[in-house]
């Protein structure tokens, strides 16, 4: 199903509205979906990239298929029967990017970010931060993990027209959560590494067919990526995934961890995390134990930074921060006091300053260096501790 043309009732029905901001950088942003391989061991991601302007460009749906509404209803409410309600409320909301837009060539190549989503979400729910980074000159590959941590996901089997769906899985009864989540985080980090391998193959001239969109040829990336400048990034479960990916793959130069859920990472790995990490926390999620683990990493690398954005909650680092309306407020009650546009600007600018420093970019992102030290309105080093929730 094409995530542009699937029929939906209008966004704004049932009092819910999504208004994702366009990228604030100098470049237009395009996106496409990429699926490689016909098994679970393949990859599925949404690619955000600088593109050439195109009149009348179509915009992709934020929720790409109705099955994702079922997954969200199950994860957030424990009531899959609410899926039609969510589909009516948010099913036709769009992302302000050019769907399958033509890549804007860059002779020096774009730096690459592999992005890992949080628990119970999926590849499109971080479109605001991914769009923002792409508008400043990055190619961003937002993975959809197949470890049963996505609200739902799927792959296309070798049999034409056949899909196999992978549902969200809660911790099995009688099993310790750490061991269950630890296994998942290792699979997730390995998927980040495989995603990098995919782009290395493309840059090396290997033909990689995209099962979903044969009209958007991945070979256009061949001479337009700088794979000496690669970072890994993620939110919550994806934040700790990014930290672990630094251990697994030497080509990742640094990591940006948005409100990282540090619980699933085993203690033995902390001495192995030698590269810089930027932890951008919200005010109401982290615990003293979690921040103590981050500080263990900062003691090993003087370039690791921990900052907190005051007035924000865990969900403010997702697109849910931009979804408003009575229905949404009833379902997703947690709200920060900081304007979501300002929170996104702080988060993205801190990330850009950090990426310039550690990917050796020739940009002007150093103008936001103070954010890395917790200097500025709403930003502090470390923070008061709120209650922890996933």
UniProtKB/TrEMBL annotation:
The active site is at 236 (nucleophile), 259 (charge relay system), 314 (charge relay system). Its EC number is 3.1.1.47. GO terms for biological process: lipid catabolic process. It holds the Pfam family PAF-AH_p_II. InterPro entries: AB_hydrolase_fold (IPR029058), PAF_acetylhydro_eukaryote (IPR016715). The keyword Lipid metabolism applies. The keyword Lipid metabolism applies. It comes from the Eukaryota. This is 1-alkyl-2-acetylglycerophosphocholine esterase. It comes from Erythrocercus mccallii. The gene is Pafah2.
């Amino acid at each position: 199903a094409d995530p542009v043309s699937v029929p939906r009732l209008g966004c704004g029905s049932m009092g819910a509205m999504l208004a994702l901001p366009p990228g604030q950088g100098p470049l237009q942003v395009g996106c496409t979906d990429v699926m490689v391989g016909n098994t679970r061991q393949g990859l599925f991601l949404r690619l955000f990239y600088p593109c050439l302007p195109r009149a009348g460009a179509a915009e992709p749906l934020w929720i790409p298929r109705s099955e994702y509404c079922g997954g969200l209803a199950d994860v957030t409410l424990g009531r899959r029967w609410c899926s039609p309600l969510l589909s009516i409320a948010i099913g036709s909301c769009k992302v302000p990017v050019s769907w399958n837009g033509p890549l804007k060539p860059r002779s020096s190549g774009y730096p690459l970010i592999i992005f890992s989503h949080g628990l119970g979400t999926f590849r499109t729910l971080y479109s605001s931060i991914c769009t923002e980074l792409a508008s400043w000159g990055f190619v961003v590959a937002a993975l959809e993990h197949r470890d049963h941590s996505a609200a739902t996901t799927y792959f296309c089997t070798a049999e034409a027209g056949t899909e196999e769906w992978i549902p969200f899985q809660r911790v099995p009864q009688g099993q310790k959560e750490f061991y269950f989540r630890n296994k998942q985080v290792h699979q997730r980090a390995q998927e980040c590494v495989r995603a990098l391998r995919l782009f290395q193959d493309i840059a090396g001239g290997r033909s990689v067919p995209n099962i979903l969109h044969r009209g958007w040829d991945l070979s256009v990336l061949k001479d337009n990526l700088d794979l000496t400048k690669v970072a890994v990034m993620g939110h919550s479960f994806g934040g700790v995934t990014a930290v672990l990916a630094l251990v697994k793959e030497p080509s990742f130069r640094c990591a940006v961890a948005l409100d990282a859920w540090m619980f699933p990472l085993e203690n033995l790995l902390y001495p192995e995390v030698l590269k810089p990490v930027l932890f951008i926390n919200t005010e109401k999620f982290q615990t003293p134990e979690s921040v103590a683990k981050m500080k263990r990493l900062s003691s090993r690398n003087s370039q690791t930074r921990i900052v907190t954005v005051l007035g924000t909650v865990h969900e403010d680092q997702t697109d849910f921060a931009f979804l408003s309306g009575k229905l949404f407020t009833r379902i997703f009650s947690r709200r920060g006091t900081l304007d979501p546009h300002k929170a996104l600007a702080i988060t993205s600018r801190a990330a850009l300053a950090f990426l310039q420093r550690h990917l050796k970019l020739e940009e002007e992102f150093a103008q936001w260096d103070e954010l890395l030290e917790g200097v500025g309105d709403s930003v502090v080093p470390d923070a008061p501790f709120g209650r922890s929730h996933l």
